[in-house]
Design brief:
Blueprint: H1 2-10, H2 12-40, H3 48-63, H4 69-79, E1 81-87, E2 90-93, E3 106-110, E4 115-120, E5 123-130, E6 133-139, H5 145-173, H6 175-188, H7 203-248, H8 254-280, E7 288-292, H9 293-301, E8 311-314, E9 320-325, H10 326-343, E10 349-356, E11 359-365, H11 373-376, H12 400-410, E12 414-420, E13 424-432, E14 437-438
Parallel strand pairs: 8-10
Antiparallel strand pairs: 1-2, 1-6, 3-4, 4-5, 5-6, 7-9, 9-14, 10-11, 11-13, 12-13
């Protein structure tokens, strides 16, 4: 018995089979009982003539014409039927609280010269017309349309209850699926340290463990890649430093200048790679401090005031304080403005800061050559450049916007890029803050 219970707990399919089996059996029982009750409370028209063909004459004679109402009441009680008697000046019923609307009856078949079977709402009644009196005889409680309706509603309510219980049990049984979906979405967004919690021992529990093991493997692989890249970058720093020292003792020449420029580019590339891996490492390297953002943005932008096309700075008069990493936000703004000037074709560049509730919105807008739409989704990926030739005069190494995106995401913000060829590029950085403080006047 214990092994069967354990097998049942470990099998999602067995539990689903039990739920659906319970549903089918419940519906079968509800329908069977309802039909049996309805059939027990429904009089078939075909059963009426067998009795009344032989006894209708004696029943009418016992009642008499004019009718003896006492005899009619006695016969009604003995037969457990309702007897209605009417003529132009009289309407009488043995059961005043239970009447069929005999006026809406329709002819079914003839029993005798003055007796016939009629139907009212699929119920059979006997109609006798004798000596100016009309006699209507029908089952007292067995013509149970109202009772049948009640049975129908009760059966329907039980069916709905079974469906609700079915939904509740299946919903609870498949609840881990929603947890898995949310967990996979978080892992997909880069939260590789997130694990889906589950105490289930069935197939869904095994699937949860598999997804958690997959996240462990991915995290280990990426961490190994980061460590390798960091180690290589650190090791490259030593020979580059030595090369720079030797370069100082070389005689001045155009080749020396070219070599110095190449070494500086390699040094910059290594610095950008190191910075990217630090930011990728769960954003643990941020050195946040309270900074008045409008003043800070204006200070960084003022360093580019020698740009020939002109720099338009728009900041709010009422400053607010945000927790940011000063050095990295400076790097973000510097990269954005440098790109705008490189591709701006000496046209005016606009940098603006606005506060939208608890979110700071920084915008850098140029009027340069723009970026083709097919490149926009990849432009902030590492080492990606729209120009496939990757010549020096077309730009850097393809890490600038990648670093900007990482910095924005490290501050729990986002970087958005829109562009139109020939019209320019619009880059928006949104930096949320938990409690932005207003600068005192």
């Amino acid at each position: 018995m214990t092994s069967i219970v354990q097998q049942f707990r470990k099998s999602l399919f067995l539990r689903l089979l039990l739920i659906f089996g319970f549903t089918v059996i419940s519906f079968f029982v509800i329908i069977s009982v309802s039909l049996r009750v309805i059939n027990q409370n429904t009089t078939s028209i075909d059963t009426i003539p067998d009795f009344f063909t032989r006894n209708v004459e004696s029943i009418i004679e016992d009642i008499g014409t004019p009718p003896n109402l006492s005899n009619a009441m006695r016969l009604a009680d003995e037969l457990d039927w309702t007897i209605n008697i009417r003529n132009p000046i009289m309407r009488w019923s043995s059961d005043p609280d239970y009447r069929l609307n005999v006026d809406d009856s329709s002819f079914d078949r003839q029993l005798s010269t003055d007796a016939e079977v009629r139907t009212v709402d699929n119920e059979g009644i006997i109609h006798v017309n004798r000596s100016g009196y009309e006699f209507f005889l029908y089952p007292r409680l067995r013509s149970g349309n109202r009772f049948n309706t009640l049975v129908f509603y009760v059966g329907s309510a039980l069916a709905v209850l079974v469906l609700f219980l079915n939904y509740f049990m299946v919903n609870r049984l498949l609840a881990p699926v929603r947890l898995l979906r949310r967990g996979v979405e978080r892992i997909e967004k880069g939260e590789l340290d997130y694990r889906v919690e589950s105490t289930r021992q069935d197939e869904l529990g095994e699937l949860t463990e598999s997804i958690n093991h997959m996240a462990d493997s991915l995290q280990s692989m990426l961490e190994a890649k980061r460590q390798l890249l960091l180690a290589i970058s650190h090791e490259l720093r030593t020979p580059i430093t030595k090369a720079k020292l030797r370069l100082e003792f070389m005689p001045t020449s155009s080749e020396k200048d070219q070599l110095a420029e190449d070494i500086d580019e390699i040094d910059l590339l290594i610095s950008d790679l190191l910075e990217a891996e630090r930011l990728n490492n769960q954003h643990g390297v941020l050195a946040e401090e309270p900074v008045y953002l409008a003043e800070f943005v204006e200070g960084v932008a003022s360093q580019f005031d020698r740009y020939e096309g002109g720099l338009q700075i728009s900041i709010p008069t009422q400053d607010r304080q945000f927790l940011i990493d000063r050095l990295r936000i400076r790097l973000l703004l510097t990269n954005l403005l440098s790109n705008a000037m490189r591709y701006g074709k000496d046209n005016p560049i606009r940098i603006s800061l606005t506060f939208n509730g608890k979110v700071a919105v920084i915008e850098v807008i140029d009027q340069g050559e723009g970026i083709a739409e097919e490149h926009l989704s990849k432009i902030s990926e590492p080492f990606y450049r729209p120009d496939s030739s990757r010549q020096r005069n077309t730009g850097g190494f393809g890490l600038g916007l990648y670093l900007c995106r990482l910095i924005a995401e490290a501050h729990k913000g986002e970087l958005l890029i829109t562009s139109t060829l020939g019209k320019g590029t619009h880059i928006t950085v949104k930096l949320p803050a938990s409690e932005p403080l207003q600068k005192p006047v």
